Structures are given as C-alpha cells and as structure tokens.
Fold this sequence. Notes:
The protein is an all-alpha fold. It has one domain (3-74): Non-ribosomal Peptide Synthetase Peptidyl Carrier Protein, Chain A (Orthogonal Bundle). Helices cover 56% and strands 0% of the residues. The chain is built from 4 helices and no strands.
Amino acid sequence: MDNFISYKKIFMETFALDEDKVNEDVSMEKTELWDSVGHINLIATIEDVFHIEMTLEEMSGFISFKDGMEILRRHDIKI
Length: 79
C-alpha cells in the first residue's frame, strides 16, 4: 500500500474521520478526538506501521497532519 494512503488511513481510524476530511488542515487543535490518548495512539500506530521510533521532540511537535508527513520524511519515508 502507498505510504500516503497508509498514513491517511491511520488518521481516519485513530480519529474516526471520513476520508474526505483527512488533509493537511487536520490538526490537534481542530480534531475532537485528538486528545492525549488519541495522540499516543497516533504515534504508536505510525511507529508500528512505518517501523520508526520518534524522538520526544518529534512526538511533542507532531500536532498536525502536515507535521507528521515532515517527520516521516526525516525518517526517510517517502510520503
């Protein structure tokens, strides 16, 4: 499966979002289910799916869909 599709699916499943609602505008601030538990679930799923380990700095700075794509790129994941 394409990395972008996998990434988008993680957001859909973690935050119960319809596919058409998942885009670069999705952020912690604007997403109801993106609370502390949702954030932990998001990080854990992304680390598992993409076989990476985020730093604490990356985890705390991951507050939007766009931020996550940049983090994956830093880990040499093409997205």
